[in-house]
Design goal:
The longest helix has 34 residues, at 28-61. The two termini are 14 Å apart. This protein has one domain (2-61). By secondary structure, it is an all-alpha fold. The protein has helices spanning 2-23, 28-61. Helix 1 runs antiparallel to helix 2. The chain crosses the membrane at residues 39-60. Keywords: Membrane, Transmembrane, Transmembrane helix.
């Protein structure tokens, strides 16, 4: 069970870093138009992390 929790955390953090790394590799016009998308995607990751951690906490308390 602990391995699953660690795996979820590792995958979440890795996906965030990969997304931000790929966002930095683009041309000038594309960069200007995607800043809002990266901001929203970052908040999606944050929200997903909160929901997943809450779900794991509920599961462990039951």
């Amino acid at each position: 069970m602990k391995i699953a929790i660690i795996l979820v955390i590792i995958i979440g953090v890795a996906s965030l870093f990969v997304t931000l790394a790929l966002a930095g590799k683009n041309d000038e016009n594309y960069s200007g138009s995607t800043k809002g998308n990266i901001f929203r995607l970052t908040w999606i990751y944050v929200g997903l992390a909160v929901v997943l951690l809450g779900g794991i906490a509920l599961y462990l308390n039951i």
